[in-house]
Amino acid sequence: MSVHAQIRLDPYYPYSKYTFGLGMGFSEIYGNLNHSNSEPVFRLSVDRNINPWISFGAEVMRGALSDYEDRNHWTTGLSVYNKITTFDLHGKMALGELFKGPNSFAMKTLFGLYVGFGVGVINNDVSNVTLKFEPQNKLYINDIYSSAIKTKTTALYMPFNLGFDLHLTRRCMFNINYQFSYAFSDYLDGYDFPQPQAHNYYNDMFSVLSFGLSFYIGRVGVTEELIGTSPQSK
After folding, report:
1. Mean of pLDDT values over 1-19
2. What pLDDT is stored for residue 234 in this prediction?
3. CA proximity to 20, closest of 54, 50, 58
4. Can you tell me whether residue 11 is helix, strand or coil?
5. What count of other Cβ atoms lies within 10 Å of the Cβ of residue 214?
6. 224 three-class SS
7. 42 and 28 Cβ atoms separated by less than 8 Å
8. Is residue 216 part of a domain?
C-alpha cells in the first residue's frame, strides 16, 4: 500500500467515489452490407469508483449507424440508416498499477489507461430499408424470406472498452475511449440475409470512437481508508 499511496497522492491522480462523463464520437457498423459510414454518437456515463483501480457504472448512447452496398449481381444498391439508443452496465479496471516509472508526462498518460467490458441493450430504428432486390429470380426478398427484414428491434450487446483519462485538473479529465460491441442480433442494419444472397456467418457488430470530459463528483482525494493516513481533499 505504500507504493499505491505514493502514486495516488500525486496531484494528477486523485480519487473520488463517483465520476460523471460526457462526450461524442463516431460509429462504424460491421453488418451485412459492404461499406460503413461514420455517424455521430453522443454519450453520458456515471461510474462508482470502488477504489482507484476498479469501477462499475452505466452509460447511455444516442446516435446512428449507417452502411451501404454497391450495385452488384443481386441488388441495385442499398443504403441503411439506423437511429440507435443504447444502455449498458459495465466494469472498468485501471492499468496504471502495471506501470512503474519516473514522475513524467509519459507515465502520467500511461496511468490513465483502462480496459472494461459489460452488457447492454440497444434499440434500433432502421430507415431506408430496401424491400425489393434483383436476384436472378426477380422476386421480392421478403416474399421468399419473411423474417429477412426488420426495422424496429431491441437486442442485447456486449461492449468492450479501451481508453485513457488524462487529468487536466484534480477534478477534470480528458477522455478518449474506443468501444467495440458485439450484438446478439443481425438486424442492426435491418437485414438478416440468408444464403445464398450473403455469407452471413456472424451477428452484427459496431464500434464507437469517442472524445469527451470526465469529472469527479464530491470529495476529491485519497481517503484514509485507502492509504491509512489522513485524507487529502480539494
Report:
1. 56
2. 44
3. 58
4. coil
5. 21
6. helix
7. no
8. yes
DSSP state of 149: B
Candidate from 58-67, 75-84, 115-124, 126-135 with smallest mean pLDDT: 126-135
Which amino acid, 102?
P
Q: What is the CATH classification number for the domain harbouring 194?
A: 2.40.160.20
How far is Cα 73 from Cα 160, in angstroms, rounded to an integer? 36
Range of the domain at 115: 2-227
Decide if pLDDT at 63 tops 90: yes
- Report yes or no on 148 lying in a domain: yes
How many separate domains does the chain show? 1
**Omega within 30 of 0 (cis) for the link into 196:** yes
Could you tell me how many residues make up the chain?
234
| pTM, to two decimals | 0.80
What value, to the nearest 5°, has the Cα angle with vertex 50 and ends 173 and 168?
10
Cα–Cα distance for residue pair 62/23, rounded to 1 Å:
11
Phi, psi of 109 (to 5 degrees): -65, -45
124-164 pLDDT, tens digit per residue, is: 999 877 665 555 444 445 455 556 778 899 999 999 999 98
At 230, phi and psi to the nearest 5?
A: -70, 145
**Backbone angles phi and psi of 138, in degrees to 5:** 60, 25
Per the listing, cell 481508453 goes with 163
Q: Pairing state of beta strands 54-69 and 35-37?
A: antiparallel
Q: Is 76 left (phi over 0), alpha (psi -120 to 50) or beta?
A: alpha
3-state secondary structure 35-75: EEECEEEEEEEEEEECCCCEEEEEEEEEEEEEEEECCCCCC
Q: Looking at the domain assignment, is residue 56 inside a domain? A: yes
